[in-house]
DNA sequence: CGAGTCGTTGATTCTTTTCAAAGCCCGTGG
DNA sequence: CCACGGGCTTTGAAAAGAATCAACGACTCG
């Protein structure tokens, strides 16, 4: 789950991997023993409208969650990384679709069993509540980004969020692998592929990032990226 | 809380007032006995960054929840109506600001007491989980609207959502009072006041709505509004 | 090696924003 | 009671940012 908050430094993220591990220690057998689900690149985990029979937790890979309009316009509402839960919520049906963007392994949590366990075990309930709360915060952060930031600021936000995730996971915060295509980024940031591409080259020409490959960003000027993302001057600062 | 879903007819909203009443029956004295908080028009309930000491539930009035960028750009993430909870979530500090847009009365739920009660009482916990889940759904719906819909489609969505709320509350679904200003609508839909105003007049000229006053919309062609909101043809259908 | 997908770049168009100004509503006070 | 003032809304004209249309290049995989 990508948190697109205004001030990343204020946002003391909880380590999702740790919480996932905690959960594992407490969950009962029905949940612990479920077989993992493997989905191939571009394969769907579920579609909007499908009944919620399982909640998933990403073990490996990346999944994009999205909603669409009738004419095909698509809004990616989140990228789910290892540790993230997919499909949490109180309704009967999924309200968005989930598609793997790389080869992915998921652990499957039967929804009714999970809720039953959560009902009896406040710890588990609290885990889910926290996870949901994090997702709400991420969604609202993205809303601010998509609603108010310029194209450059939006891309800066995304790169910063991915960098933060890397740091949290103990990998290099300056080297960012992009598992998603430009089209995915475009639909996440509510831009077009062309604008995303142009914005990448603009950041590259400004020496703020390097593009070793189109799917590997190296941050050269972290501070500049933060300034852009903060939104002090509508992205005109460079 | 305004749900901006693609298909309002699929979205069987739970009656919030009822759930609020249920909750009331179970909450312990510390929570039930708190004095209501009265806030005047344009007064803030809390600001982003404030420590969360209370969760609020709107009893009367309307509150807008928003996030801002450093240069003042504002994104309203939700309008909270009677029955809605404000400030739910797992963190220590509020991640958005809350400002009354009309004279408002709130019931105050001390955060720690509430969580303690929820911890011991799965019913309460589930209420909060559901409320949070609804807010997440609303946020993602708004994200789709802001990210993918045209100005006309966005306004259509808002009017439809308000109409649905009226129906749910047993009032006239065709007559919509707008407690918020054009600026509030603009910041909710990520548009400018001018665009909002122009879009209102366009809908009026198309005989889809009437504007008795600037703050009172009468829906004349509900179907047309639904078509616009559905997003089949990028709002070019009229 | 060729087909196809993905990414980049260029030219043009268009929706929305920005800048500017006038109208309207409403409360206040003379 | 009506004039005045200020905020909110509407409308117009011009500008800008991003979208669209179009083409080319790069990389991948049968």
How would you describe what is shown here?
Two copies of one chain form a homodimer. Chain A is built from eight helices and eleven strands. By secondary structure, the first copy, chain A, is α+β, with helices and mostly antiparallel strands. The first copy, chain A, has two domains: 20-146, Jelly Rolls; 149-229, Winged helix-like DNA-binding domain superfamily/Winged helix DNA-binding domain (Arc Repressor Mutant, subunit A), CATH 1.10.10. In chain A, the strands form three sheets. Chain A has a four-stranded antiparallel sheet. In chain A, strands 2-7-4-5 form a four-stranded antiparallel sheet. In chain A, helix 5 (151-168) crosses helix 8 and helix 6 crosses helix 7. The two termini of chain A are 29 Å apart. In chain A, 47% of the residues are buried. Residues 8-25 of chain A have low confidence and may be disordered. Chains A and B meet through strand 5 and helix 4 of A and strand 5 and helix 4 of B.
Short recap of the structure:
With 238 residues, chain A is an alpha+beta fold.
Q: How would you sum up the global shape of chain A?
A: elongated
Rg of chain A, Cα atoms, Å: 18 Å
Number of helices of chain A: 8
Biggest interface reads: A-B, 49 and 49 residues
Strand percent estimate of chain A: 15-25%
Please name the CATH topology of the largest domain in chain A. Jelly Rolls
Order of helical and strand elements of chain A: HHEEEEEEEEHHHEHHEEH
Main beta sheet strand tally, sense and closure of chain A: 4 strands, antiparallel
CATH architecture of the largest domain in chain A: Sandwich
- Based on secondary structure, the structural category of chain A is alpha+beta
Distance between the termini of chain A: 29 Å
- DSSP strand count of chain A: 11
Provide the CATH superfamily of the largest domain in chain A.
Answer: Jelly Rolls
């Amino acid at each position: 789950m990508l948190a697109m908050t205004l001030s990343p430094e204020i946002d003391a993220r909880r380590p999702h991997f740790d919480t996932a591990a905690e959960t594992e220690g407490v969950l009962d057998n029905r949940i612990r023993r479920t077989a993992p689900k493997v989905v191939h690149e571009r394969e769907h985990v579920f579609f909007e409208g499908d009944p919620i029979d399982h909640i998933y937790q990403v073990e490996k890979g990346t999944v994009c969650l999205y909603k669409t309009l009738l004419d095909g316009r698509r809004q990616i509402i989140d990228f789910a990384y290892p540790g993230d839960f997919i499909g949490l919520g109180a309704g009967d049906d999924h309200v968005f679709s989930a598609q793997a963007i790389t080869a992915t392994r998921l652990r499957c949590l039967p929804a009714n069993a999970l809720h039953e366990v959560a009902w009896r075990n406040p710890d588990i309930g609290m885990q889910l509540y926290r996870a949901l709360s994090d997702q709400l915060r991420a969604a609202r952060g993205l809303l601010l980004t998509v609603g108010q930031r310029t194209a450059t600021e939006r891309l800066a936000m995304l790169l910063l969020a991915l960098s933060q995730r890397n740091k949290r996971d103990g990998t290099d915060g300056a080297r960012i692998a992009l598992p998603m295509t430009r089209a995915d980024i475009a639909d996440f940031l509510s831009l077009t592929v062309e604008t995303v591409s142009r914005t990448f080259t603009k950041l590259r020409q400004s020496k703020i990032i390097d593009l070793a490959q189109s799917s590997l960003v190296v941050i050269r000027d972290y501070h500049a990226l933060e300034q852009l993302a903060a939104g002090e001057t509508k992205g005109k600062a460079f």
